[in-house]
Amino acid sequence: MDLVIKNGTIITATDTYKADIAVEDGKIIMIGKNITQTEGAKLVDASGKYVLPGAIDAHTHLEMPFGGTTSADSYEAGTRAAACGGVTTVFDFVIQRKGQGLIEAVEGRRTICDPQACVDYSFHTAITDLTPEILEEMKESVEYGVPSFKLFMVYKKEGLMVDDGVLAKALEKSKDIGALIAVHAENPDLIDMRIEKFLSEGKTSAWYHYLSRPEFVEAEANKRAIHWAKAFDAPLYIVHLANKEGLEEVTKARNEGYEIYAETCPQYLHFTNEVYKREDGRNFVCSPPIKGKESQEALWKGILNGSIQTVATDHCPFQSYEKDWGKDDFTKIPNGCMGIENLYPYMLSEANKGRISFNKVVEVCSTNVAKIFGCAPQKGTIAAGSDADIVIYDPNKKFVVSKENMHSDVDHTIWEGIELKGYPVMTFSRGKLVYKDGQFLGTPGHGQFIKCKGRK
Ligand code: DUC
Ligand code: ZN
Ligand code: ZN
């Protein structure tokens, strides 16, 4: 054995109990009482601490060309920050360029990720060009280990958007081959119409980013995507759900027995649309935008009652000077916010303050992600045979988020000044200590590509 973690309280999605954990060759080999450390094994005393599975961020955009620039965190910086926030697996988006094959796109991205990744990673592929050949290649991608595909229902000008015909085809195909279709759901025509109106009226502040894509703009697309998923009886995963009405449709479809999943993000749970009235409102510009209080409350309820299955970040940061491009015109603000290092600490702090249970946080930030995207039980839990992706959490540690104590390459954070109750003190990635007490201790290249299983 290489490592023993003793005297901690293990928290999984379903259980909370005191036990020791033995790790060998990157795997958990034993969980039990009074495990004796063999010679040469490292000992970690977790007395008074919680021992959790590492979080799995189901939604990141690392070094992604977008908004006239490239998102500010490279794979190295993003996965370094991930490790320091207790995230041990990252699902990033591969964007298929027009005319590009799916496996070609994934392999191209792997060559960039492999030398940089500090924690394990996997992919969803965003299909932007669904030719008959690509439709056939989806099956190969499932077999390759990338069984999830994202379709953008917006971003026409950026060349990412697909129409309903493509969505329908992909959903129909996904059912046959055991793939999962994910959607970014907003209505592009409504957005364009509203942007044109606001700009013509000289309404250019970040508040009009929100007003150009308010609750009903997202809800319409949620409903449309769910309608198609139901029509083809195909599973559907709605990324970054941020509004109440859309969530109600998810709940309804789930109650009818359809396999519809919803993900939300910490920025929608903590902030409201009021942030867009702030002087630095542009820093919070992401799409879908952060909604009003009623939606925020509905999202928390959705997590508690199981209508929302995952919480992930949509980590897509831009530097201040890039956000400043839109100081006088919200349409020029690159869309995206940071959160990869804040996801688990924020959600765990909410548990520590009594809003939800720790088990629920583990469920939505780790276990459900692994199950939905096909890497359980290797990932997403603390069990014999699983990867030793482990976070040691000190429930008594106070932490105030600041740009200075974050580990990404971005020069600001929307989480500045947020006070957290409790904080991760160690992160292990396959048994290797990659973070301790504020210090990143990992190495680029340690992270491995995780092949996911399809649904068949
Ligand atoms: N939304 C964002 O805010 N950024 C990246 C892509 C997305 O859909
Ligand atoms: Zn999106
Ligand atoms: Zn996204």
Automatic annotation (TrEMBL):
Positions of post-translational N6-carboxylysine modification: K150
CDD domains: D-HYD
Classification via Gene3D superfamilies: Metal-dependent hydrolases, Urease, subunit C, domain 1
Any Pfam family the entry gives: Amidohydro_1
Keywords: Hydrolase, Metal-binding
Keyword DNA repair: no
UniProt family annotation: Belongs to the metallo-dependent hydrolases superfamily. Hydantoinase/dihydropyrimidinase family.
The protein's name: Dihydropyrimidinase
